[in-house]
Amino acid sequence: MEPDVLVAGAGPVGLALACALLQHGVSVRVVDRAQAPATTSRANFVHARGSEVLDRLDALSGLPEESVRAMTITNYAGDRPMMRVRFGDPGLHTAAPPMVISQARVEARLRDRLAELGGRPEWGCALVGAGQDADGVTAALGDGRTMRARWLVGCDGTGSTVRKLAGIGFPGVKVSERFLIVDARLDTTLDRSGTSGWVHPEGMLGAMPMPGGQWRLLAYDPAFRQDKPTEEQIVERMRHILPERTHGLGGRLLDASWASLFSVHRRLADTYRQGRILLAGDSAHAHAPFGGQGMLTGIGDAENLAWKLALVIGGLAGERLLHTYEAERRPLATQVLRGSTAATRMNIAAGPVGRFLRDRVMVPAFNLPVLQRWTTYTTSQLWVSYRRGPLGGRGSRPRSGDRIADVACVRADGIRTRLHAELRGRWAVLGDASLFEAARRRLGEHVVHLRPVDPLPAMLVRPDAHLACTGDPTRWLDGALA
Fold first, then answer.
1. 77 pLDDT tier (thresholds 50, 70, 90)
2. Which has more pLDDT, 87 or 243?
3. Where are the alpha helices (DSSP H) in 247-368?
4. Residues 6+ apart with CB under 8 A from 480
5. Euclidean distance between CA atoms 33 and 2, whole angstroms
6. Residue 123 region by backbone torsions, left for phi larger than 0, else alpha for psi between -120 and 50, else beta
7. Least-confidence region, from 27-41, 100-114, 134-148, 170-184
8. What is the DSSP string of 73-119?
9. Strand pairing of 459-461 and 427-430?
10. What pTM, to 2 d.p., does this model score?
11. What residues pair up with 45 in beta bridges, in sequence order?
12. Phi then psi for 235, rounded to 5 degrees?
């Protein structure tokens, strides 16, 4: 049977997109060239916004209990602490905690949720060709089969085959030389309540606690010139530089479960859509890992795109709605790229001017509580608003496009609940029955009627927890879905 959407890539973005589409009643197939799910950790931090998305997908269960709450970063000069940043509640009212947890575990929970919704990834299924017409996309697979779908979404990473087949440019620049990354057990006295980092003339080194008693080690090492090193060679290099750069504080590397290396590139796709082919996640934007923004931004792309595709596929909105996907998400990716690039350059500063700015200006500044709160606020992405986009608005707050906090509500049957828990593939009307009926006439069955426990203006909330409009939703819906 021909699916509505073919998703290429069964990483966190592709899985999140597939789950969100199925919540909206859209049929999906997910293919991935890999023979099996990845077991290595890769990304290892989920900020509060990411936890909120997982919660709205009903895929958060169990992950907070399994995660590590490492909410501080202590930077050292030699064996002397020089900066300590404490992450906390940015004051934006979320029930979803930030988590230190392996990307592999996030993906596993998303696969479980996908199975609950009736889907599954098709492994060893490489997409090698794609042609589109007015009605859909015909995808060619590596085994000689073809697959037809109404839409194709590339969630297949920075080397995206889908992006290349669509002819979408991916310009960018190289930001740094090599970083080494190793997940390992350590013989150390480091505090597992937070991350530790060391400034060193040969390059920075960081140690983050991971679930299961392991540590994530990250080191900038432009002097390591081994061509295509094995994991064993990367581990041995880390074993050597760990005591050297941490002045012994990092302890001793015992054994490793994973090792890799990477260089940082900053790239942004020219467009997120070419006809019936769309991009999400690393297929559309690539940046440094500093700040833990990659997986966070990608699953945000998925949630934003899902409800818009669902309305178009269901005949409730015109294709013009899909233009708002890029209009809302690409400016955020641009900001993330700038921020992660600046953080990379600060961390690897080698010249006297760069070191002076980092050690004498930035370090003292980041010891100030106001900048620590700003750091939490910025990295959480709870601040993200689309009020300046085509679906946004002006006037008194909250404005169309603003994130709506996870407020306490009461359902029509009298049961107390949370706003975000009721979204999960649905719109929410916080207001009287006439407004609910007006929304349901335009949006169909995927609308829930709620009453906030504390007084709030009447509002229509999008499935991604952003405000559609206040008051009567008719005019907004007529304009947005035309």
1. confident
2. 243
3. 294-313, 320-347, 352-356, 363-365
4. 317, 321, 324, 391, 468
5. 20
6. beta
7. 170-184
8. EEEEETTEEEEEEE----SS--S---EE--HHHHHHHHHHHHHHTT-
9. antiparallel
10. 0.91
11. 100
12. -60, -45
